[in-house]
Description:
Mean pLDDT: 85
Shape: elongated
Amino acid sequence: MNMHLSPAEREEFLYLNNRxxxxxxxxxxxxxxxxxxxxxxxxxxxDAGDDLTEHQKQAxxxxxxxxxxxxxxxxxxxxxxxxxxxxxxxxxxxVDQAPAEMVKDTLPVYMEAALIPFNDTIVMTSSAVCxxxxxxxxxIEYEFKQIKDVRGITETLDxxxxxxxxxxxxxxxxxxxxxxxxxxxxxxKHAPDIKKILDAYPELHDVYMQMYSKISARTIKKDLKACxxxxxxxxxxxxxxxxxxxxxxxxxxxxxxxSFDGMMGQCALFRL
Length: 272
């Protein structure tokens, strides 16, 4: 796989999108309205009949896995670029150029992007650079490494194969909870709201613990830095430092020895 679709893949991708655009009566820039309408997609597939192969029909059905939002473009590998959003990494390719070439800025870049599943890949079809806010480059890099170590990189948005599918209601609840867990002050202020969310969606407990650990890690990192601590890697779980090591690899080994294998995603890792 390249950093963008091959000429044959690009031709097929554009052909299917143009056919869908014409069928739906939408301008190309409005195609996301079709992606989010499974019934329209099915009507299109039925109407196409023998004009499309079964493989092409399934490719169009998979368009409903379309995802649009804000991401950090953190890496550009030979195979694909890597986008970071919340607690997940996505390996994506461009239509006719590498994703990093689409933004023309030094990575990591905060951006709005549209992602579409196609033939076991994720295609980034549009991008716009956004304000990064106060998140440091080193924090983004470290979060990228932590997620990659614990969860790996998601390489498909195919709704039939993507792991950990969540309902729109659960996704909205997660977004709301993340807002409540931005700082210790917002966490304490919205404690009853957070409890309601966790009671309704217990599957969000891992997200809650990771965000809680991140809040604690910010304070611990600041205090340790003030004490002159340097050249160490730390893992924080809840309110406590649970592992310290001179290298990242040794830190992960310590967590494994502590039986944190299934809970590493709930830890906040940082380096001084």
